[in-house]
Amino acid sequence: MKKITIYSLFATSLLLTSCADDYLNTNPESTINEEQLATSPSALQGLVDGVYTGFRTFGNTNSGNHEDYGHKSMLAGLDLMSNDVTMAKSSWYISWYNYTGRVQTNGRSLLPWNTYYLQIKTINTIINTVNQAGVNDSNKYVLGQAYALRALSYFMLARIYGPTYIGHTSDLCVPIYTSVGFEGKSRSNVGEVYALIENDLLKSIDLLNGYTRPTREKVDKSVANALLAQVSLEIGKYTQAASAANAARQGYNLGTEAQWRNGFYDINLTTDAMWGAVINSSNTSFVASFHGHFDNTNTSGYAGGLGIYKNIDKRLYDKISSTDYRKKAFVSPVGGDPSYPQLPAYANIKFIDPTVSDADYIYLRASEMYYIEAEALARSGNETQAKAVLYQITHARDAGYASSLNTGSALIDEIITQKRIELWGEGAAWFDMKIRLGVGLDRNYTGTNHPTFGQLNIPANSSKFLWQIPQAEIDTNPNIVQNPN
User: Fold this and answer.
1) Helical (H) or strand (E) element with 277
2) What is the DSSP string of 231-253?
3) Which of 153, 236, 377, 440 has the most crowded Cβ, counting Cβ within 10 A?
4) In what residue span(s) does the SusD-like N-terminal domain sit (predicted)?
């Protein structure tokens, strides 16, 4: 259990302004030369650890923006672009919520670009150094981690700045860099980018066979399989998706109701947490953090302190069974929640940080793998097994759930709905909307609980679901082609 610490907003602002430059510099430039790196597994692991640090560091893009705290911030912002998450006031993340951040002249368009390309630069140093020196037992696990991290980085970039895979493999995606130098390349097509992603993950899985990681902060074979499952589902390789998802979830426990409802603040207490980052008093950025923005109960954070509540969409809440304990993760519109009488209807009480400032980031949970496996099986025609997998996780959350009687598209819709409930606020909803399901944004409906500034309707497959290439890249790279506005 973490030590509980309390900071005021004022103290936190001082912390952020005084310590922003003290984080680990993850640039690959170093006093260690390539020859030394090639013969030093510890130095190579140090570079990989720098990437892990970069994925959870505030201010990596030098923006001073409180939405700029790494991979978890990208997942949070993108969920706010879905139908499923509402925000009560216009503040941080408003430009994600109202789709203005995706425009090239908005500084937010640079956040995902820099978050992942900065780490790709370091990762390419690791991959090229090991491959040039020769893969052996002392460096193969480092290389396996590096391939998985590069795959994830390009996967995120491809889904944000590029179109869906199926039917668009010849369309423009993002530039591919596999060496350290950034010479301003043109955009590769979707098929080329996803081929790199898939190949990197297959290499990673092979290299990480037998690797026992010291903590869940590092990528192991289960995480690489989970990423392959996500990618395979997206590109329509359903047999591979089901197999990888099943392999990924082995050894993880779905947990009890109490364990599921403990706030998602500790990577070691969340039994199905596969991968994330440990946050403590030495690396916290407090309000510029996921729980700072999403913990409605914390009166020292943005959500709870300033009333910038993050709530569940009314329609999705209504889809949750009354016997499903996940419904308790949101304030009931009938009677509220006696523990948090100040919170409005539909406010999330899923994310709670009793440490106030040191909540871990959980990037990936094994629960997602059940839904990927079930959907992939259903799309492959194996509906009996799909229902069995869906029952396994849904009954664990809802004692009143009976095995599904749905078939065809209705079964897939049920799987997706259960996934949206399980992973609310964790970064899956917008990707599923945009990439695989072709669902439009529909917030301006009768009885909506989205505030006026968020009541947008955008048709499926609109260019609005493509982020534009940031202006800084347009200005410095003559080979880049812009996405439509």
Assistant:
1) strand 273-277
2) HHHHHT-HHHHHHHHHHHHTT--
3) 377
4) 81-233
Kindly give, in sequence order, each residue whose CB lies less than 8 Å from that of residue 435, ignoring residues fewer than 6 positions away.
159, 164, 165, 234
* DSSP type of residue 31: S
- Domains of the chain with CATH codes: 27-211+457-485 (1.25.40.390)
Q: Residue 295 has which token pair? A: 């913990």
For residues 183 and 328, give the distance between their C-alpha atoms in angstroms, rounded to a whole number. Answer: 51
Alpha-carbon gap, residue 428 to 354, rounded angstroms: 25
Cβ pair 289, 299 in contact under 8 A: no
What residues are paired with 312 via a beta bridge? 85
DSSP-derived 3-state class of residue 42? helix
Cα first-last separation, the chain: 47
Residues 6+ apart with CB under 8 A from 240: 228, 232
Using the 8-state DSSP alphabet, how is residue 18 labeled?
H
Q: Nearest Cα to 37, choosing from 104, 126, 120, 123?
A: 126
Token pair for residue 54? Answer: 């970069």
Q: Where are the alpha helices (DSSP H) in 69-177?
A: 71-79, 94-97, 110-133, 140-161
β-strands 273-277, 361-365: how paired?
Answer: antiparallel
pLDDT tens for the chain, residues 1 to 485: 343 332 333 233 323 333 333 323 334 444 455 666 666 778 889 999 999 999 999 998 766 899 999 999 999 999 999 999 999 999 999 999 999 999 999 999 999 999 999 999 999 999 999 999 999 999 999 999 999 999 999 999 999 999 999 999 999 999 999 998 768 999 999 999 999 999 999 999 999 999 999 999 999 999 999 999 999 999 999 999 999 999 999 999 999 999 999 999 999 999 999 999 999 988 898 899 999 999 999 999 999 999 999 999 999 999 999 999 999 999 999 999 999 999 999 999 999 999 989 999 999 999 999 999 999 999 999 999 999 999 999 999 999 999 999 999 999 999 999 999 999 999 999 999 987 888 999 999 999 999 999 999 999 999 999 999 999 999 999 999 999 99
Cβ–Cβ under 8 Å, residues 52 and 217: yes
> What six digits make up the tokens of 414?
């049920």
